[in-house]
Amino acid sequence: ADPGFAMAFAALSQARMWLFWNFPGFQDEAELARLALDRALEVAPNAVETRLAQGFFFYYGRGDAEEALRHFAAAEEMKPSDANVIAAIGLVLRGQGRWEEAIAAFRRARTVDPRSYNLAFTLADTHFRMREYTEAERVLLEELDAQTTLSAQLLVLLVRILFASFLLAAG
Fold it and tell me: How many whole angstroms separate alpha carbon 109 and alpha carbon 113?
């Protein structure tokens, strides 16, 4: 079988897990994600993309952060310069409350893919969740300087940061 199909099935599994995790009306997506993951495992069980999809399946679908980290670590070992893998590790660490380790992972992912506004958003959002508003604002403003268009996602977070900073100053 064509290993490219494994990449497609792995990407489909990740997309379905994202829908499952983010939208309450998409609970059936977890089973569809598992089916796509099974196909990726049949074609290329040790591909980076398959291990990444396995990690997201365990993290979002089963709530098993340790098993997710195991798959993400295996993917990172195969491809240490993959920003998506590094960011996935950061997401799990953030979910575990391991804030500084998550920040370090997101920063490392940004060194691999400095043009990713999604990584900038994730890093800034993590600083925001830590109530490090000045650092969150710095990351976003740095990203806004680098982008030619303003992402609505970045703008919304910037407004949230500025509002939180205002409340802190006022209160």
Answer: 6
